[in-house]
């Protein structure tokens, strides 16, 4: 049973704004969401900038008890899920609840709350730990809380595969529907770990940009002067459905999900395979799954982290799979504007891919000022481009060499 699967609802919370429309307008205008970190003193850190979510009020989406009892990463996910559900107009009740599930991805879970209560236990003792601490931090509380909120009693899974987590989540949700296990899924991902511990850890790895005096220009994927990624936070949640189910209830369709690939580098805990072998295998699997030839693809929303190693490896993978067609592909990295949302990146970038198909506009790679001769493809530099995009791929590659790719296309009745 290979059923068709379509995207019917979208929700976003990112450094570019809250809501799909605000994010899309910002991305198409080439706006940067990167700035100085405001939540703690960064004077001892080599990187002092990030993509913080701004002007977000948890109380606009959750009641006050929920706000106190959950880490902020769950706040972001519930907010994005509410937007996606309202956008899709999907109603869940006793008649369909067991056929609607939730799969989400995240990398580190509730690190803000972990750091807070570690300080509490060290200064005030264990009796001061909240009874809501554990359920407030664990990653599977994202799909758990979304399911509780909407009565989704179908498959419920949390995926933790580093920066590929929410791309894997959408892919697995897609397979559940395609194979008849569910009729609709709430899926995507979230991350919110702009904390001293996480920032310090990435600084120690020398993974982050140190362009602290020019935060808006610090994330510069594929540019010769890139010097590391920028941490970001937020959530991207999609509602995806079996096609006939969506048509029957008159849902608006953004795009159709047609391909999914996943692979491992089996190379290094943090560095990508320098020849892009694992990424190439993942891309090829997604194309094969979708029944596409390389020449059929129009656009790639790249992983494009702005690190010297990743961007070069990804570039090699694309050229290996697509050959001469690689030079005809439009490729952009929206991380140039949002920063790297880690486990939440794939959900946000799948949404950008769907919107690209829907609106015929390709978001740019900003800060592309000094071309790298080893990264010699079309990265849609600096300015959004109007173009008919019928097929789009979103790529996410994570620490441990875990890779995921999704392919979407414009919906056409059969």
Q: Give the overall shape.
A: globular
Name given to the CATH architecture of the largest domain: 3-Layer(aba) Sandwich
Strand content: 15-25%
Structural class comes to alpha/beta
Q: In sequence order, what are the helices and strands, one letter per element?
A: EEHEEHHEHHHEHEHEHEHEHEHHEEEE
What's the tally of helices?
Answer: 13
CATH topology of the largest domain: Peroxisomal Thiolase, Chain A, domain 1
Provide the residue-averaged pLDDT. 97
Question: CATH superfamily of the largest domain, called what?
Answer: Thiolase/Chalcone synthase
Task: List descriptors.
13 helices; Peroxisomal Thiolase, Chain A, domain 1; 414 residues; 33% helix; 15 strands; alpha/beta; eleven-stranded mixed beta sheet; single chain
Concise account of the structure shown:
The protein is an alpha/beta fold and 414 residues long. The chain has helices at 20-28, 64-69, 72-88, 111-124, 133-137, 141-150, 165-178, 196-204, 243-248, 277-290, 308-322, 335-338, 345-359, and strands at residues 5-14, 17-18, 35-36, 49-50, 100-105, 156-159, 184-191, 234-242, 255-264, 299-301, 330-332, 361-362, 385-386, 391-398, 402-409. The chain folds into two domains: 5-248, Thiolase/Chalcone synthase (Peroxisomal Thiolase, Chain A, domain 1), CATH 3.40.47; 259-409, Thiolase/Chalcone synthase (Peroxisomal Thiolase, Chain A, domain 1).
């Amino acid at each position: 049973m290979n059923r068709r699967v379509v995207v019917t609802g979208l929700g976003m919370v990112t450094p570019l704004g809250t809501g799909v429309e605000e994010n899309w307008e910002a991305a198409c205008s080439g706006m940067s969401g990167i700035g100085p970190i405001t939540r703690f003193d960064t004077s001892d850190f080599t990187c002092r900038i990030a993509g913080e979510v701004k002007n977000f009020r948890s109380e606009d989406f959750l009641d006050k008890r929920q706000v106190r009892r959950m880490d902020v990463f769950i706040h972001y996910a519930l907010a994005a899920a509410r937007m996606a559900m309202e956008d899709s107009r999907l109603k869940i009740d006793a008649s369909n609840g067991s056929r609607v599930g939730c799969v989400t991805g995240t990398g580190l879970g509730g690190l803000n709350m972990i750091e807070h209560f570690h300080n509490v236990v060290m200064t005030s003792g264990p009796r001061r730990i909240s009874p809501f601490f554990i359920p407030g931090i664990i990653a599977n509380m994202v799909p758990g809380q979304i399911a509780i909120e909407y009565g989704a009693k179908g498959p419920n899974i949390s995926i933790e595969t580093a920066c590929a987590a929410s791309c894997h989540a959408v892919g697995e949700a897609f397979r559940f529907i395609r194979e008849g296990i569910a009729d609709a899924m709430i899926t995507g991902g979230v991350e919110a770990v702009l904390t001293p511990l996480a920032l310090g850890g990435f600084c120690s790895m020398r993974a982050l940009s140190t362009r602290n005096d020019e935060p808006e220009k610090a994330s510069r994927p594929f540019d010769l002067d890139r010097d590391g990624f920028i941490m970001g936070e937020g959530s991207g949640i999609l509602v995806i459905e079996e096609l006939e189910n969506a048509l029957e209830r008159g849902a608006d369709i953004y795009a159709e999900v047609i391909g999914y690939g996943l692979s491992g580098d089996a190379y290094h805990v943090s560095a990508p395979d320098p020849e892009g072998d694992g990424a190439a295998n993942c891309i090829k699997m997604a194309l094969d799954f979708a029944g596409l030839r390389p020449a059929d693809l129009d656009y790639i929303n790249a992983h494009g982290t702005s690190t010297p190693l990743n961007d070069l490896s990804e570039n090699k993978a694309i050229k290996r799979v697509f050959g001469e067609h690689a030079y005809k592909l439009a490729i952009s990295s929206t991380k140039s504007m949002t920063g790297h949302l880690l486990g939440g990146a794939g959900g946000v970038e799948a949404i950008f891919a769907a919107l690209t198909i829907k609106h015929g506009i390709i978001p740019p790679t900003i800060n592309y000022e000094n071309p790298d001769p080893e990264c010699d493809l079309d990265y849609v530099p600096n300015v959004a481009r109007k173009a008919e995009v019928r097929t789009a791929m979103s790529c996410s590659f994570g620490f441990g060499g875990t890779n995921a790719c999704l392919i979407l296309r414009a919906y056409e009745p059969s």
